[in-house]
Description:
Number of strands: 18
GO molecular function, one term: oxidoreductase activity
Protein name: FAD-binding oxidoreductase
CATH topology of the domain at 10-72 and 188-251 and 352-404: FAD/NAD(P)-binding domain
Shape: globular
Domain FAD dependent oxidoreductase: 32-383
Pfam family, one: DAO
InterPro entries: FAD-dep_OxRdtase, FAD/NAD-bd_sf
Strand content: 15-25%
CATH class of the domain at 10-72 and 188-251 and 352-404: Alpha Beta
Amino acid sequence: MIPTPPAMFHWRQLSREPEYPLNVVDTDIETDVAVIGAGLTGLAAARHFALAGARVVLLDAGQIGQAASGRNNGQVIPHYGRHTPQEIEARFGAHRGAIFNRMVGGSADGVAKLVRDHALACDFVQNGWIQACHATSALARVRSVYEGWKDRGHQAEWLDRDAMTAHIGSSAFYGGWKAGSGGYLNPYAFCQGMARIAGDAGVDIRQDSAVLNLERVNRRWLLTCPGGSVLAREVLVTANLPQSAFWPGIGKVSVPVRVYQVSTGALAPEWQARILPGREGVSDTSRAICAFRYDSQGGLAMVGQHTLWHDAADRGRRAVAERLRKVFPGLPLQMADRYWEGTIAAVTDRLPRLMALAPGLNFAGIYSGRGVALSVAWGAMAAGLALGEVAERDAPVPVTRLRTVPFHGIGVQYARYMHPRLRAQDRKEIARSES
């Protein structure tokens, strides 16, 4: 089998972390645990299994850092995509909800500790993450988020409009809050570093080794790959799975959402002094995805989404430049420099999943765009659950059977074409705020 050439994109170009050596499944292997998916969840889970003394094989259909874990905006966010801490405790009860809140609220510091303890060369900047209100209608909701985290002892600071303007360098936002433990990093480099420490713990990492079939054989699981097989007592699935068919229904547990990223060239020093002078990461509350942060060269990396993907690179570079000029009037930017794309796995409630698919076969993951920090904690927790270190009642969410997205096909089409509607809603809210 000829390995797939890895795609070159901005985070890979900037990475200072050595790439993990390529090794494929080219024979028949026996092991204690097989983990499917070498993203951040799988890397953290495999390492946890190995540190507990298990033999572990970690499989990926592609190469480390080439999927969502390595291609995202790299923001390390200790907060949910949709819910307040109060809502989590109301939904899951005081016991489980408090566990979930502690995991999410502490997830950024967990990443910081890994980076620090293992000298991961991923350009981690932990100066906080800001959630900025794109319209006055978002203020009450975001205030509730801030109060929820502050009441639970986490680093949370309310920013009125003047304070927000000072932090971001723009008057385009109406207030919001700052999570002090948040930040951002080079996600591709972080994946490579996580692979390094997983390998150091004894994990056998096999890339370009897609699982084509999974079947029960004498109380163990046989995973068939193009070049060989893996026989394991326990299997943990952590991959994004929109096209997978190795288990019935597994491709319908989430909806793929395609997004793009653009990075400008390094901004002039006077503009860097004005825009995000404190070097926080930012996500706003608009329905159409908007998040931005500096890269290690002093350029702004920003997320966007197309409805139609023809001429995507040129349109994306122009769209981001236009957006940045609106947020930062006078910014001398005609077209952003670098463009790349990726796909995230999402679900309607934006809550990650734990699923028991069969005896010894479990699933963990799906972060709906908020996975850089949480996925590391989630993977280690899922491994602890399988090992019996974590009781099921102490898991952050209930463990369910296979849970697919209802009307999956409709959801896929909605995710593809929802952008114009969301953008129109945002424009209406901004217009009301300005009137």
